[in-house]
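Deviations from the work plan: none for this task. Representative record:
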Amino acid sequence: MYSIDELRAIIKDELDKKEYIQEPHSLFEPILYILEDGGKRLRPLLTLMAYNLYREDIEKVLKSAIGIEIFHNYTLLHDDVMDDAELRRGRLTVHKKWNSNVAILSGDAAAITAYQCIEHCEDKYLRRAIDFFNQVAMDVCRGQQYDMLFETRDDVSEKEYIEMIYLKTSVLLAGSLRHGALLADAPEHEYNALYEFGGYLGLAFQLQDDYLDVYGDVAEFGKNIGGDIVANKKTYMLIKALELADPETREELWGWIEKKEFDHEEKIKAVTRIYDRLGIKEIAFAAIDKYLKMSRDILDKIDVPKERKIDFYETLDAIGNRKK
Amino acid sequence: MYSIDELRAIIKDELDKKEYIQEPHSLFEPILYILEDGGKRLRPLLTLMAYNLYREDIEKVLKSAIGIEIFHNYTLLHDDVMDDAELRRGRLTVHKKWNSNVAILSGDAAAITAYQCIEHCEDKYLRRAIDFFNQVAMDVCRGQQYDMLFETRDDVSEKEYIEMIYLKTSVLLAGSLRHGALLADAPEHEYNALYEFGGYLGLAFQLQDDYLDVYGDVAEFGKNIGGDIVANKKTYMLIKALELADPETREELWGWIEKKEFDHEEKIKAVTRIYDRLGIKEIAFAAIDKYLKMSRDILDKIDVPKERKIDFYETLDAIGNRKK
């Protein structure tokens, strides 16, 4: 069995081969650029981990795991254009370093490259692999559409928000696991269980991101605290606050949202105080715990020796601890 | 055997079912919009025609033929953003009617929809169908990249231009034919021959488009004559003219290209006169004929009764006649 560090090194080596590059080089240069910025490689890692639950010959799933990472980066390329984002992990986004056309077309090439990678599997898995990948890809697209639709709405419910982040974030994590288990010849109910596990894990992870933006420790979180508050991002925190606030508090919150000129620190403090008053911290905490528990319950039932699942349990614990 | 009109009607009926639409509707509305604007449905038609060379049960290839049409429209959605085009077939482009983000994301959804459609085939064809589709999709992307790269170059050779339009236009026509023949269980050398046939046909068709922009009859061509000249589009005509012109004529031509303010009619007349002087009309004519002949030679060798190929021959004749 491989450790997470070993799997990460294997993914890095495979990416470094750059086998997916085709002519003209300029089409693939932005893909190289976004791929070389590091990132956690969470998705291919989950694919390899899921495969490794059942089998040792992980080289069989490696190319398609890389495909999932390339797919993820394709969504980042296009999302950054749509959000007009300046920076990603501290570096200029592709459409800022080059231009929007480059980000669109190289993104398209990345998506096709992902499809080329994903078909690296035995014939007997091909239809399901492609089917699943199509479903995941479409769900990610749908999630992004809901996210954009929600931007102009002020009545997004918790349920709608959970559905949106499920599609936009969880499904690809879930699909990465399912793909690995499928190619490892896991039984259908097990690869479906891993998909479900990944879905809840993704929800916990995303809610925690929302939570840490408000209550995280700058040094540990590695991002500036309050970025979502400054940008009026419709996070779980804001949606719950708008839902639970009495008319007066709601008005205060909207006052900050609509303010065009403000001191960043002042706004962050004021909104955080409102969250404190409404108990959003505890509510978010509870929601994260709920989804972690749901993941854990599914993981318990996956029928492989417990020692093979240890990295999965540790991942859950890490998310649990990260929130404190 | 089906007539072209019957096949067109079948394609229309299938598109009208709108079975590919998913939630949220707003994600698919722009896809519906661009699909409902008509168009020649040339690609799905070629798929059905190729299938119908060998088999009658064309419903078996219909869903994937629709996928190819949806793929084509995805490329139009993104190309129109990249070219900042105002109109397509007389209607506002998606990014002008909505905005760029809508065109990017709905385009992405259309691409995934195409992949979902293309897998409608028996298992024994699946890997090749997906392989081929990936190759075609990537080639179209590469063609668009070359096209964008050429915009800022003034030394594009005829060979480079032919390669670019081959990738950008021919390959999808060729792939549409190959896909139909593959699913009809045609032997490998025959579906490859149809691919080659489609490649040359596509070149003839694109060169003719370039030709008709200069020498076409407005009433018959249905576009304004000289649009490419006004826009300095690097067509076959312009590339050949720049290649063949003596220094003086070349300077005159560049003068027109670089002029910021000009009378449209005057520029069209002047550039056309240059083309006349250089014999570009006859050169383009000869090139179109060459590619039509290459198509015809391949078609002759396709081993099905001649009466089944009649629509293919008529298509070649129609392109041949269209240029007069």
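Residues 34 and 73 of chain A are 7 Å apart (CA to CA).
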